[in-house]
Amino acid sequence: MEEVIVYIEENEIGDLVRCQNCGSLMLMQSGGTVCGECESDRVEWYDKEKPRWNNQELEEAGFIVIEK
15, 25, 37, 44: which has the fewest C-beta neighbours closer than 10 Å? Predict the structure, then answer.
């Protein structure tokens, strides 16, 4: 199971991205471009077929949700 750092409110839909600099997997505000961990602007969608997720979908998919 992979950890996802969540930077949005519980029921909000956001972009699921991975930082290409530090490797963090994050759920962030839609359209966000800066990593919440290392502040790099090298973020890419985790899954281009499904770029937007919410907390419930992450948990149902087996991710470990860590809220910040």
Answer: 44
